[in-house]
Amino acid sequence: MIVQEYRLLAAFVQRVRRGLTLRRRLQSGIVLLTVCLTVLLLGAGVQYIVPLVPLVAPLYSLLALGIVVYLGISVVLPALRPVSLRQALTRIEETYPDLHDDLTNAVQLNPESLARSNPHGVALDLVEALHHHTVRQVQQYTVPEVVRQRRLVGLSWCAMVGFATVLVAIIQPHVLGEAVRILVRPLSYLPSREIHLALTPEHATIALGMNVEVRAQASGRLPQSMQLLVKRHGQADRHYPMESLGHGAFRYTFLKPQASLTFQAIADGFTSTVGTLEVVPAPAIGHIALQYLFPDYTGLPGRTQEGGGDIQALPGTQVQLSMRANVPLTKGVLRFDAGYEVPLVIRGQELRGEMLVMQEGTYIIEVEDTHGLKNLQAPRYTVQVVPDLTPKVTIRQPQDGLEVDEATTLQIQYEAEDDFGLQDAVLVYSSSGTAAQRLPLHKGRFAHRQVQETFAWDLNQWPLPSGETVQLYIEVSDNDTISGPKKGVSQTLTLKVHSREQEHQNLEKLQEEVAAAVLDLLADHLDLAEQLRTWQEQAEAGQPTPSKEALQQARDQQRAAMERAEQTTHQLEQALERVQHDPFSTYETFADMQALQRNMAHLQDTLMPQLQQSLQALRPQSPSTAQLQQPKRQLEAVVQELERLSSLAEHVASGEKLNDISQLSNKLLEQQNKLLAAIDNLPKDFQGGELPPELQKMLNALESLMQDLMQAMAQLPTTLPDEFLNRQLDAFPLTDMMRQLQEMKQKLAAGDLEGARQLAEQLLKNLSAMVAAMQNMRQQARGGSLDAMSQQLLESSNKLADLVKRQEKIVEETQDIDQETLNQLNEAQQQAFDTVQQRFEQELNDLSRLAGEMLRRTRQHPELDAAFQDAYQQLLRQLHAVRNSLKEHELPQVTEDLAEARRQLAWMQQRAERLTQPDRTLQQQIARAQQHVQAAQQALNGLPQDRQAMLTPDQRGQLGGLGQRQGEVHNDTQALQQDVQRLLPLMPFLPSELGQQLQEALPFMGEAQGALEGQHSQQALPPEQEALERLRNAQNGMQQAMQGMAQRGQMMGMSLPMLRQAGRFPMPEFMPQPNVDEQLSGAAGASVRNFQLPDKEAYKVPRMFREDIMEALKEGYPERFKELIEQYYRNIVR
Amino acid sequence: MSSIIAILSARDVHARTIGQPLAILALCLCLLWPALAWSTRQQEESEAEATSEGEVLLDRWQPEAARQWAEKRLASEPQHPGWRFLLSEALFDLGHYADALATLDSLLKVVPHPRIQAYREFVAQTIQSTATLQLIETAHFRVFLDPEKDAALAPYITDVLEQSYQRLGDIFGFTPPEKMRVEIFPTTATFYPASSLSTRDIEVSGAIGICKFNKIMLLSPRNLARGYRWTDALSHEYIHYIVVQLSHNRAPIWLHEGIAKYFESAWRLPQVAWLDRRSESLLAHALKHNSFVGFKNMDPSLVKLDTTYQVQLAYAEASSAIDFIVQQRGTAGLVQVLYELRQTKDGGAAEAVTRVMSMAFDAFQEHWRQFLATKRLQEHQGVHLPRFELKQEGKMPTDELQQELQSSTARMRARLGDRLRQTGRVPAAAMEYRRALEQDPYSPYLLNKLAVVLMAQGEWLQALPHLQRALQLSSDDVGTYTNLGRLYVALQDYEQARAALSEAVQINPFDPAMHLHLAESYRQLGQSDKAQQEQQLFEKLQRTQ
Q1: Residue among B432, B482, B510 whose CB faces A726 most closely
Q2: What is the C-alpha R_g of chain A?
């Protein structure tokens, strides 16, 4: 036990010793390091003193050595020895004073030693107790506390010096290096006593006429002066003082030495090596020739230029230089001022080289001879670049500021010219806020350097932003392959692009204006009707009416209405003109507007003037109601026509709106189909969040279309709500669809793909239903309601055709009977004629004889002679004519001639009676002559004249039957006219004259019926024919209307431009022809903007419908359709 | 304006008058019932009679007695499926929908039969349909309506029902011992499942209400663009209930509908006014052409007739037959017929009529026709069949002019008149409407338009005859009453205005303007309470519409 405690104490003391030893070595190291670093840093200052006082270097080195030795002896060596036991015990007891000297004693009392020998008789138990006590104390102590009792001296100083050293080493590392060098080689810093001379250059060859500088550098002891010893062949040596440059350097310059020489530097008796200077002729260049090879694209031939090195060429021109030198050369270059050089090929004294002209500048030809001498003051040559000019481009067509249709083909004509060649023409166009678009007009090189080209710019293929102003110009490049093609730019043109949609909207606006104007006209006439009604009431009350002022006001009002009608007609013409070029307007609109125009013309040309006339005929302050009847009738006709026209005009305007809505619905459906496809194509692991841009775009487009549709529908004309209805105006399911769309968006954003798909399918179903409803609505508005009426019209047309046939038959049969009676009459006349003719001729003969007697008699009266002569001759001519007519059986002519003869005789009688001496014989003769004429006429009258008398009983019966039939035709025509009058307001496109013609036919039929029933076939024929003509006119009008309706049916939804393109209507020359057709959006021409390539699924029926069909099939089908359905699927499989 | 009642036994109800789903349910129940009966007969032979007694009580619309009967049975046999099902039916008829549902749910756990499940779904659907309805309790009725959507009905419904209660109680000598349940459904979507009527039933037959399951169910007039005589319809349905109670649910359809139609306006008029222009025209036409529908063809329900014409003629026939009975035997005779029906076995109504009228049923019919002939009925011009077009979401709008006017020329002119008004050419518009009237002189629609345009010009007195003529032509045109109200307010004849607007309220009380005018009328008449009530209603409707 005691031994163990002793060992513990000894071990503790040993550990303290080791610790103290280590600490002392550390302390000495710190001191050593601090001092060494301090000395080293001192060297930094010393090295600046050394150049001034070289002796400082060895002193510094010695001092450092001394310090090191001292430290080695006084610090390092003691530190290498271990700390003694005594020192250790002392240090322990200093650290722990409560130990006193117990530890020292305990350590000294080694129980093992004492066990072996105890010369002093130390009590072992006391030793044990000491040990035990001390151990207990020591166990509370620690070695580090003893070791650390005294702090390390100089540590902070060491750190500071170390930091300074590191800093210097980083910033100026050479300072420390120099300090070390001074420490290590101090003697090298002491000055030398010898002079060493070095020449520069020692050997040189110079060109004749050149100066050369020789330098000598002294080392060791530096001399104050120096001389140059020069030896020339055949001349005495000469000394030349050299110019001091300081620090032992001297120089001397040989000025244009003429011959070779040797030289040597001499200073304070010391000499340098001998240098040599060889003088040779300077190299020079002459006979320069330049061979130009121009770039291929220019097509220019090569050219040689002699007499100088100045160059003028196109960029890219290759210039080959050749020249000759006066001495053999080793090197030659073309040195350019831009800093680069081109080597020359040397063959003896010949040099060749070439350069590519790319930029302007100067150059010199620099050569070097075999001595390495260069040509001095070489001439500087210039390189001038002749520029390749930029192409010139001019647009010839179209004119600046032109307004173009958005779907036209625009002819772009331009001219371009370049000095060498042209290529790549591009049309550049842009509108405000959009990036410039580039349309290649010509790719590759043009055949000529001056061209005039025309490009057909199909705006369907390369569309311009409709409704905007576009800036455009043409770029044409030249064929410069060297510095790159240069672009020539034409003048900038401005084009205003017609927006067809905008035009269409303007047209719709115009149509609305027309409708409003016609309605206004109607209102004016209704006001007038109200005025007439008031007058009527006043007249019935026996009041004189109208007042003069009121009548004048009514006339003015009507005149103003006529003027406005004219303006409206003008507006209508404009609208009709636009419709013909509007790809969004349907043929139905065109047809309706044509009808509107036609009926408007009828109103303007016929009905309104008639009304005007009837108003003019009115007399103010008249108590008669009868005079109001005519204007009332005329006004009613005008009002009825205006009602028709107002309805038609509104029908046109609203029809266009419905058409727009229908097209919007189709677009909506199309967009929804795309959306559904896009949702189907989304990845199955789609997690929602931000939607793919394409999908987002589709959703936005769908929403936008829905809003457009809602807006368009809000503009539809509605009936005026006069009463409160529980139904609100959200009749169309668009609000629901909007909600579905929003929900779909939310589901997509939430990643609920299935939910979104279901909603999309539902939306598609709703849209399909809506589109179908729209189409139905449009169909109804366009003509659906006309179906029933068109049937009526067809029936009316058939009736009219029947009436025409019947009237024709009546006319024909009447003519037959009339002809027959005429023939019978002629026959009867013929039969009676022979008898009559005999008597007639007898009378004529008597008359001729009497005429002769009368002539003779008148000769007795000179006052009568001349006039009677003429009368006699005239009478004879008349009689002759009568005879001739009689021969020809032209009884009316005979009658007429006889009447003339009678008049002639009457005149003669008057003259005879006025004779101064009355001649009774003559008067009797003339009277007898008159009696003969009378008798002849009577004889003639004795011929059968009455056709009616010729009628056989059968014919009489036939005429009676015809009269009855004419009456039936009359009644049927009247019924038809009433039918037509009923149809007219409902089919406003029917010609107004239709009813009028039928109306006009009626009185003629009545007249004809009267004549027929009176058995006057001859009198019946003219009114029959008049009636027939009117029936035929009505029939023509009806047929035209039917044709119009048939055309409407055939051209459902197509616009006039489309029809023209299809060759169904003539295309006006001024109208641009689109290349392709597009029916769906109502635009002529292909809208490449909206065009999308159909994908692989496009041919299929939408999935949801296929699923519906499959589901439906599961439910079975009616037995009677079984075969049909199976056949259908068999066909599909095939 | 009328409605149809289902007056069939409980089994028949399921099989015949409920719609397709309920028909299936009824069929199921019919099929189920023998099974249940068979199973119980195995246990106790005497129960067969007891089962029929419970059913009989339900047939007679005595659900409380049926409930007590079923509970008594269940006390001894708590798990008996037949009694439990009967209990659920009784609870449903008593309006305890939740209890009925709970009973069915517990029954389904024991007997998970799909047919019981179907009935359970019907009850659940009814609960869902009535979820938004809130109770308004009157002295003799418990009215459930949607306070948000049908607030406009609330102020008037009490008067209608209580006046019907009093007046019809006097006529028939019967008043229900317990408060009767009335449900006003705000939408067709809630009405269809609860009532078993379809869109076709409403639009063709005008069946907008039904008395069934011991309650009155009515579709809010808000669902028809111009409303309908909902007040008379309520009274009409209440009469059906009285007839069921008095006859023990044995009255045939013609008797049911005839009585209901005949007395439906009795609550508001001192004298019955069943013979309006339309009925007269229809009967005159039928007499002239001998084209009566016939009492037998009215079964099983008027709603099943093919056309609106047939339905309206059937109503006219039935009510005229009632008129004949009343003229012959007085109201007491009519009530006696109903009581006699309780006693009849196979003879049914014919037997009852024979007993009261002392003539064979064939003779009765013959005498009835003679009675009609003596009335010198006339076919009036311009009589139109009523339209009951429901407003439906997503449905395309119909052309109003097309519906209102027969003459296409009149349509064209009405349209032009509207356009002229829109452009401010008011006198011209009036002229155009006059011209339209020349084509269709019996159109209340055009008459109203003309009146409105005249009123717009301040020519109130000129407008009045047109409105009066419109009223003469159609007594159920809310627009005419509203315009008359406006006109009388302008003429400061507030009593007339009140009367006209009160009629309008009975047809379509959702128009805020009519309440404003009514408020003004009441104010001028010194009835400030009513004026305030109308003013508040106006403001509320203004906010909600």
Answers
A1: B510
A2: 68
